Amino acid sequence: MLTTLVVLVVVAAVFAAGYGFVAWRDRARNTSGEESAAARDARARQQRYEAERHGTQGDVRQRDQFGQS
């Protein structure tokens, strides 16, 4: 009984170590140049959208101020 439990614990430890190693290796592999370029592109697109939105909100406020005079 004790031998079976020890074997199961060892198998579980080996499985967990293998899973951890593969996850670590894949995480390192996923950081490619294409992904960083895509992340930069996404940030630039988001900043452009925010700038356009901010500019549009400024135009609306100016129209409201001039319209009330």
User: How much of the polypeptide forms β-strand, as a percent range?
Assistant: under 5%
Unreliable sequence segments: none
Radius of gyration: 28 Å
Helix content: over 70%
Q: What count of helical segments does DSSP give?
A: 2
Overall SS class: mainly alpha
Mean pLDDT: 82
What's the main sheet like?
none
Beta-strand segment tally: 0
Terminal-residue CA separation = 90 Å
Shape estimate:
elongated
What's the SSE pattern? HH
Characterize this entry briefly.
The protein has two helices and no strands. The protein has 69 residues and is mainly α.
How is this structure best described in words?
The protein has 69 residues and is mainly α. The protein has two helices and no strands.
What are the SSEs and their pairings?
Blueprint: H1 2-30, H2 33-68
Task: Name some characteristics of this structure.
single chain, 69 residues, mainly alpha, 2 helices, 94% helix, 0% strand
